[in-house]
Amino acid sequence: MKFLGVFALAALLLPVAAGAQDAATIPNPITSLLKQQVVRYGQLQVAGAEAMPADKYSYQSTPQTRTFAQLILHVAQFNNNMCARISGMTAPDIKDLKETDGKDKLVTAVKGSFDFCTTALNGLDDSTLGQSAGKMGPNTLSRGGAMVILGEDWFDHYGTMAIYLRVNGITPPSAQPAAGRM
What we know:
The protein is mostly helical. A two-stranded antiparallel sheet has the order 1-2. The termini are far apart.
């Protein structure tokens, strides 16, 4: 009976051990994941920006929150800034872009920011995670820290975008039927 218990435990733990072994062999697990996420969240956020009608870009849930246009502009600016910090590349100049510039320009800017991030992250690997990405407030930010903040920002802003879309009767891209799901 004791043998059967040990055998059952080994049978349960073998897949876990095999999975741990597989995970340990992924080269550059942090930068590899971020490179996957830039594609996913780029597709979702561009599709969300395109799905919102131009006349709803002024929508804001409360007076204290950003309008949809401000959200899209912020995403583009933040992506460019953080991906430039992480990679050392020069960010595209969109400082003259305003929330009132219209849907087409804002969609182009957010798409461009994800394209820039894709290029900026492409040559990176985990060996540089501890290198400086400059100052953020009073603190020096590491490349790894900047990557975490960038990923958090994608999740946060897409969540906000999805709520804004739903409140306006639009199904967010991630909730589309399987054929259109990203």
